[in-house]
Specification:
The complex is a heterotrimer of chains A (about 170), B (about 350) and C (about 500).
Chain A lengths: L1 E2 L8 E2 L3 E5 H25 L13 H26 L6 E5 L1 H21 L1 H15 L5 H22 L6
Antiparallel strand pairs in A: 1-4, 2-3, 3-4
Helix pairs in contact in A: 1-2, 3-4, 4-5
Chain B lengths: L1 H32 L16 E5 L6 H17 L3 E5 L6 H9 L6 E5 L1 H8 L11 E10 L1 E6 L7 H11 L4 E5 L5 H13 L4 E5 L2 H9 L5 E5 H9 L3 E7 L26 E8 L4 H14 L3 H10 L2 E2 L4 H21 L6
Parallel strand pairs in B: 1-2, 1-3, 6-7, 6-8
Antiparallel strand pairs in B: 3-10, 4-10, 4-11, 5-8, 5-9
Chain C lengths: L1 H9 L4 H19 L5 H12 L4 H26 L8 H12 L3 H34 L4 H18 L4 H15 L2 E2 L6 E2 L13 H20 L18 H6 L1 H16 L4 H16 L11 H25 L5 H12 L8 H4 L2 H31 L4 H20 L3 H18 L5 H23 L11 H31 L1
Antiparallel strand pairs in C: 1-2
Helix pairs in contact in C: 1-16, 2-4, 2-16, 3-4, 3-14, 4-5, 4-6, 4-13, 4-14, 4-16, 5-6, 5-13, 6-11, 6-13, 6-16, 7-8, 7-12, 7-19, 7-20, 8-19, 9-17, 9-18, 11-12, 11-13, 12-13, 17-18
Classes of the chains: A alpha+beta (about 170), B alpha/beta (about 350), C mainly alpha (about 500).
Chain lengths: ~170, ~350, ~500
């Protein structure tokens, strides 16, 4: 995931690769996580007080948890800042084939939306074919054979042997 | 997501239409054949496989009940029965499936008291008992209070005395949070006796029994089934049962009423069968009759006795009445507990 | 006891019992290997098939399935870094690096042999100690359970490689995911956005599938159609010299005992067992630096422990009728259909049931190991399937598996959301294991903390008056502090070298 060789230590925004220093990515991630946990904290504060006086209530544990996680996130961010300007050897994070990864992510979401509508087996055929294309497979025999074998297996294991009601 | 759901509903409407048409056609045939009047007394003859939709995962008490019932019901109705587990949302997933189904008797649900308390609390506004037809009551399962064998408590009276002396410092462990079926049973006793107990919520009955045996709570609440073998092994001692009469399997344990606590005895755990709104009463009666007949089979009887439940013969009319009474009772209690504002 | 054991083995005079055993072991092996189907779902799905059978036959089949399925989760953990159960997460830590080094066959052979020995040893312990240890486990009250959950969490903090701060954040994410749903004490919906689908909380298996398997699919897409390292074909019956196996005997034996003891405590189960024994093995190993990079010891300790936890979980079920794991809870249902109510009288009233279970665990071990060793040869070749095909197969089976776990779309949506989250977190180099373990332990921790306070009427003394609780707290603190000190020392040593 992170390449340490010196030739691979520079920013890149190509269609074939994205690369940035780890501390920068970490900072961005921390901002995102921080926002999420602030929302979580707010939602926890809205929870009703317990009827039983002894109980810490539905919100007690989440509040404590949110507060400590926020502190931990801040600490990760500070550590990232120190490393960004410090002397420690930098690590870099890269995403190869970013376009295809994005397409695959969209495919996963699309499959979760259409799975029930077009039925389990057809959607497995369509999306496994698409996933293989996204992964760079271009051999026709593979592209036809794998989805069919997969569907045959799913049919045999889930429907025939375990009698699961698939859509 | 939204469009997906609409699409699905559209699909279901189409299916419903198809089923209604088929139903009309067959009804017409019956009338033409001149046998329409006796149809009410006919046996239930579903036109296809019957789906029983459950609100629990496979393996739980409701699941075991349904699958055992299905086994003796299948030969009776000459159709296969598909048990569909639709857990999630405190019954919401299941109720949505049942509500959306055609009222042709091919899609039925199994319910417990949790459905009624749920519709009054978390699912209020999403579902109401009026969205469904309550077809048959199959099992009654009263709750009982018990202690470990070496406990100083011997009766509900002892428990109440202890709570009075300590100002509520008696722990009662039971299934579900405040406002759950068993918790309401406890509050009803509190009101009758004029004391307070300390409710400790658990998420499974074996956990409650383990906590009582290990001395982590003073008193446990549960239905008979899971506790039965512990009574037989002389590890637990019953304080009282919240029911009309004593349990046939534990005749020594007195009811709440016998000990002078007049708690409403219709507050029992149930397992019943319900369906989507708009099923003809005749069909409901046929289904109820088929279910109650299937419950007489040896396999079912063997299971029901070892599970410690009592059989019920409530058909659609009695069960609908019972559901109303239960819902009213639950609502009163939930309002009193401050969980529902009316 | 011996005449009872004889009754148990006598059951194997019936050929149907053998059929059930072999079928159960084979089905469990496959079910465990399919992402989304674990032991508890597998047992639940097969219960309807047992209705018409003799009780002894059906219980033998189900126990064989349970044990084999608990092993099967390791296969995907080793091959594609996607543990099928939370208990196989620790197996993936070393199993997957081994696969990347082309040693999938070795990793699978070690995992099946450790699993087999784990079951064999723990069954012996089960026969000798089921009743007394189950009675002892009753002493675990809410305070003890809370302390136990802390032990688990502190172990993970010590185990997660990389930055401990990031491990803490991951743990926070896992704990917060565990709080979603109806609050167990008050019944209030928490963080559900008013959507009833979230009321019963996030299901663990879809989260696991998303975080590991789907995020791995995205990583495979990144690698694209480049060549993989071919795995060495398995020669002989086992893929590794007997000498290597003998070197693992202490690890396997220790992990089996640990796994059994932890498995007995109702609710603790196989996942805590495998994490704890992994941590112990790393601590006591002569080569701790290889853990996480492809250590056979790591695979052996995790697998021996999670399988011997099966026997552990059966102990309170057979001795008291209290299920020790979700799977044994489902098995109670299966027994009830047969008219058998497991409880404290099972041993006196129908001794044929517990003793047949003991016998079938023993008889089942060689069968399971043979299936596993034969399987390892095939699976090692699976590791050579082109990457694109693996990605498509994993994604497809994950979708169907997640759907079958509840036969609704909800787990599928959860899985996809977690898949995308898992990919981002892995890019940020946040460890995933603390998320899973925190999810497993989060509810146990919060519920028992509050239950303890409520049942003690608000008196905090409940957390320090019981010796058992104090002992567990000490272990938790040590587990947290010791690795930290070791890390500090290592860092100082490294600083000196630079």
């Amino acid at each position: 995931m992170s390449e340490e060789t010196s030739s691979r230590r520079r920013w890149e925004f190509g269609l074939h690769i994205l690369r940035a220093p780890l501390p920068v990515i970490e900072l961005a991630g921390c901002v995102g996580l921080f926002a999420i946990f602030v929302r979580y904290f707010q939602a926890a504060r809205m929870l009703p007080q317990p009827l039983n006086q002894i109980d810490i209530g539905a919100g007690g544990f989440p509040l404590l948890l949110a507060a400590s996680t926020l502190i931990a996130i801040a600490a990760v961010a500070v550590a990232a800042l120190i490393r960004a300007f410090g002397t420690m050897p930098e690590s870099w994070v890269s995403v190869r084939r970013p376009v295809w990864v994005a397409i695959a992510a969209v495919l996963l979401v699309a499959q979760s939306i259409y799975f029930e509508k077009i039925g389990a087996l057809p959607s497995v055929v369509i999306f496994s074919l698409a996933t293989m294309l996204a992964c760079g497979e271009r051999r026709i025999s593979q592209l036809i054979g794998v989805p069919l074998a997969l569907v045959a297996f799913i049919w045999a294991a889930f429907i025939l042997a375990l009698s699961v009601n698939l859509p | 997501m939204q469009s997906d759901r609409m699409e699905r509903e559209e699909q279901m409407k189409l299916n419903n239409l198809k089923k209604t048409l088929v139903g009309l056609a067959s009804a017409a045939m019956l009338v033409l054949g001149g046998s329409g009047s006796v149809a009410a007394q006919d046996d239930w003859k579903p036109s296809g496989a019957v789906n029983f939709v459950l609100h629990t995962k496979p393996g739980g008490g409701v699941d075991v009940f349904t699958r055992t019932l299905a086994k003796s019901l299948e030969p009776l109705i000459g159709q296969s029965i598909v048990v569909v587990n639709a857990p999630g949302g405190g019954g919401a997933t299941q109720m949505a499936k049942v509500r959306a189904a055609a009222p042709d008797g091919l899609t039925l649900g199994v319910n417990t008291v949790t459905h009624f308390t749920g519709m009054l609390t978390n699912l209020r506004g999403t579902f109401s008992p009026d969205d469904f037809e309550w077809i048959a009551l199959a099992q009654e399962d009263p709750i009982l209070f018990f202690v470990a064998k070496n406990s100083e408590l011997d009766s509900i009276t002892d428990l109440v005395e202890l709570a009075r002396a300590n100002g509520g410092e008696v722990n009662i462990g039971g299934f579900g949070p405040v406002g759950s079926m068993q918790n309401i049973g406890m509050t009803m006793l509190e009101q009758q006796a004029g004391v307070k107990f300390n409710w400790v919520a658990f998420e499974s009955t074996p956990d409650i029994i383990a906590a009582v045996l290990g001395g982590h709570v003073d008193v446990g609440v549960s239905n008979l089934g899971p506790a039965l073998s512990f009574f037989e092994a002389d590890r637990l001692k019953g304080l009282g049962v919240l029911g009309e009469k004593r349990l046939s399997t534990l005749p020594d344990m007195q009811t709440f009423g016998e000990q002078g606590y007049d708690v409403d005895t219709s507050w029992i755990q149930v397992r019943g069968v319900f369906g989507p709104k708009g099923m003809p009463l005749d069909l409901q009666k046929q289904i109820a009759h088929a279910i109650h007949t299937a419950m007489q089979a040896d396999g079912y009887q063997k299971y029901a006795r070892s599970a410690g439940v009592e059989d019920s013969d409530y058909g659609p009319v009695e069960y609908a009445d019972f559901v109303q009474r239960l819902t009213r009772l639950a609502e009163e209690q939930l309002v009193a507990a401050g969980l529902v504002n009316n | 006891m011996f005449e009872n054991l004889a009754i148990g083995f006598a059951a194997f005079g019936d050929p149907m019992v053998w059929v059930a055993l072999v079928f159960g072991a084979f089905a469990g092996y496959l079910i465990g290997a399919i992402p989304g189907l674990g032991p508890s779902l597998g047992v639940a799905l097969l219960i309807p098939f047992t209705y018409g059978m003799d009780p002894v036959v059906s219980i033998v089949g189900l126990v064989a399935l349970y044990a084999a399925a608990e092993y099967g989760g390791a296969i995907t953990a080793v091959l594609i870094n996607s543990p099928g159960t939370a208990a196989a997460v620790a197996t993936a830590w070393d199993g997957y690096p081994l696969t990347q080094q082309g040693r999938a066959g070795e990793a699978l052979s070690v995992s099946i042999i450790s699993s087999g020995i784990g079951i064999f040893v723990s069954t012996a312990l089960l026969i000798l100690t089921a009743v007394p240890l189950s009675e002892f486990a009753l002493r675990f009250g809410p305070g003890e359970y809370f302390a136990l959950a802390l032990v688990g969490l502190s172990l993970v903090a010590g185990l997660s490689d990389g930055s401990p701060l990031k491990g803490a954040v991951s743990m926070g994410i896992g704990l917060s995911l565990a709080t979603i749903g109806l609050d167990a004490q008050t019944g209030v919906p928490r963080f559900t956005g008013g959507n009833p689908e979230f009321f019963e909380g996030l299901p663990l298996v879809p989260v696991l599938l998303g975080l590991y398997a789907l995020s791995e699919v995205l990583f495979m897409i990144e690698d694209g159609p480049t060549e993989k390292k071919k795995s060495t074909p398995v020669a002989g019956i086992i893929a590794l010299p007997v000498k290597t196996l003998l070197g693992l005997k202490t690890v396997i034996l220790r992990s089996s005992v640990l796994g059994y003891v932890i498995g007995i405590i109702p609710g603790a189960g196989a996942s805590i067992a495998s994490f704890v024994s992994y941590a112990f093995s790393r601590r006591l190993s002569k080569t701790p630096e290889r853990f996480g990079k492809g250590s056979l010891e790591g695979v052996a300790s995790s697998e021996a422990a999670n399988n011997s936890a099966v026997a552990g979980a059966l102990a309170p079920l057979l001795a008291l009728g209290i299920p020790g794991s979700p799977t044994t809870a489902v098995m109670i249902g299966a027994l009830m259909v047969q008219g058998i109510q497991p409880g404290p009288l099972l041993f006196t009233r129908s001794p044929e049931i517990p003793y047949t279970v003991f016998a079938s665990l023993w008889v089942g071990v060689p069968i399971m190991v043979l299936i596993g060793l034969a399987g390892a040869r095939i699976w090692a070749r699976v590791a050579n399937i082109p990457r694109a095909a693996i990605a498509a197969i994993v994604a497809g089976i994950c979708f169907v598996g997640a759907y079958s776990s509840e036969t609704t779309m909800f787990p599928v949506h959860v899985m996809v959301a977690c898949g995308l989250m898992g990919y981002v977190l892995r890019k940020l180099q946040f460890p995933l294991a603390p998320i899973i373990l925190a999810m497993v332990l989060g509810e146990m921790m919060e519920t028992n903390f509050r239950r303890a306070l409520i049942s003690a009427k608000g008196d905090w003394a409940i957390f320090y008056t019981s010796p058992l609780t104090m002992l567990l707290f000490t272990v938790a603190v040590l587990a947290f502090v010791l690795p930290g000190l070791a890390a500090l020392r290592a860092r100082k040593a490294r600083a000196r070298e630079v």
